[in-house]
Amino acid sequence: MILDGLEIDRFRFLSDCISSAGPGIYSLKKIADYFDMSLDDLIDDRIDSDWVRRPTLNERYRAADGSKFRTSLPLLHWLEKNYGEATQKNVLRSVKVPAELLQFPDQSVKLSLLRDLIHAAKVRGLTDDAVFAIGLSALKIGENETIRKSLSGYRSPTAAYEFFFGPSGPIERFETNFRYRIEKMNSSSVTLSVTPYAERMTEIGAETMYDRSLSIYRWGAASGVLGLVSGTLQGVTPLRTANNAGDSELFEISWLPDRHQAARGRASLSPLRLL
Known about the structure:
Layout: H1 2-5, H2 10-18, H3 25-34, H4 39-43, H5 49-53, E1 62-68, H6 73-83, H7 85-94, E2 108-109, H8 111-123, H9 128-136, H10 145-150, H11 157-165, H12 170-174, E3 178-186, E4 189-196, H13 198-204, H14 206-209, H15 212-223, E5 232-240, E6 249-256, H16 261-264
Antiparallel strand pairs: 1-2, 3-4, 4-6, 5-6
């Protein structure tokens, strides 16, 4: 019945199964898609019968109060836009996240979900520059329209950053893992510190909280504020990395006034400057 529903010729498929060549990738991919599995898991016989019966969010990512799934959406939207829905679903399945979760951006999840999704995408070729670009796009996705609207009344970068990362700013309402603080700001740059909350550090662990890919994603997301105001991103410079519990990460975002945008054009290199 399943083969018929997938429009796979039963006789040919069974013949292929007993041949030395084995069934074709096209047929296997259809079967993997039907059971919401990754092709790799099907080929390697890593079949989770409970998942096959009812795909649900992996238990290790569940949280009563944690990050929101919307934090992972910029990555998933980027994968779909640049590599297609099949790649997006493959990455989701590799960490056992059902595609239907895309409909619930406010589902509470652990930060480790975003880390594992990024790492799964990096195994498939995602670069650090791409991770930064994905963070940079975070405020522009449809699911973050409310956050964008909160910045609509601010034109200068300094005013926007002071509002967004200041006391009682939007960052305080949706960021549950880290405390952001403006350490220094002038007309062309802002220096931000990022410190993990102690309870999240205990719950999630330093390996996730200080993951380098997540740091790069954060640098991009914080720089994304410039995309909503009159300023052109010049660069992001990490000033201090965090490695031990309680450490704060420090990075600087610098920008140019709008009049420099035409001169910079699209030929400039990635604005991310790594230590």
